[in-house]
Amino acid sequence: MNAGDTAFILLCAAFVFIMTPGLAFFYGGMVRRKNVGNTMMQCVFIMGVSVIMWVLVGYALSFGGNHAGIIGGAKWFGFNGVGMKPGPYASTIPNLAFAAFQMMFAMITPALITGSVAGRMKFKALVLFIILWSLIVYYPMAHMVWGEGGFLAKIGSVDFAGGNVVHITSGVSGLVLALTLGKRRGYDQGVYHVHNTPFVFLGAALLWFGWYGFKTTSVSAAAGLVSWMLIEVFSEGKTTLVGASTGLVIGLVAITPGAGFVPMWAAVICGLLVSPICYFGVKLIKGKLKIDDALDAFGCHGIGGIWGGIATGLFGMTSINGVAKWNGLVFGETRLFVAQIIGIFVSIAVAVVGSLICIAIVRIFTPLRVEERAEKVGLDVS
Length: 382
Hints:
By secondary structure, the protein is an all-alpha fold. About 65% of the residues lie in helices and about 0% in strands. Strands 1-2 form a two-stranded antiparallel ribbon. A hairpin with a 2-residue loop joins β1 (about 85) and β2. The radius of gyration is 20 Å and the shape is globular. The model has no long low-confidence stretch (mean pLDDT about 95).
């Protein structure tokens, strides 16, 4: 084993950890003042529950063995056998260090969903939903993409850092929840405004910082930021700090699946195009379809993740990373692009079906939505 590798991965785990508090600030700044504590707490409780679940069952189901390419096994339940010896996924670091690093993704992913339900979902319903969702959606997806013998890995679909596993699944699940819950009170009257812009930028900055824990992310984020600013200038006559913050985050999202596979110039294209794709996607969702995806979890993470997966199929190169078995579509090969499309559709299907199952189970125990009075006075009080 290698001391430098081990120290590096532990440092990376700390970087990725700070993303969840960062997301709490990002989301907390966007909601109405009467809901800010509740919105941030939705991320905070996941910081606790996800760690316990990961140690007890999550790591085993994601990476401990293989069953039909869909789920892991039971050999690492309770971290039994996960220690200082290297595991099958990294030969120069302790299995425990790899597990700790992966744990941070199991933390941030369900937290992304909370952006779609802000201001109207019962807290205890959300807690139960997130527990079930981790079991039914996240752990199987992590195994299919990153686990030994995983189905999507076998067919040649690649996802360097979570376009499918993190962003598509959380974004699509957020959309399913938003449709199930219905709109916030006053949504059609346009009474919702960002209440704390500095919180939003602080959260975005922490997210950008944390993203360095799993890939070197500057180019696509910068391109997404500038592209969103330009769109605002041309469409609204001025740019905004919230818009720039949103642009940099979706630039991060877009390059996540392809960061280890595409050339640097492709990262510029990926970031420049994701902003108009997501900007007009959000306009369609909220303006035309009238879906209250409160903080644009699907509009940014779902759509951005889908574009990122497609871009990886366009620009991926085997010479950069041999894990990609074929070159992308722009280099004259089709197999990687087809595999990416299959991976995207599988991720969407797992997220939709899994979320509907979770919703059905939660409804047995509690209503999903808060009562009318509770929503009026604010979820911080109620």
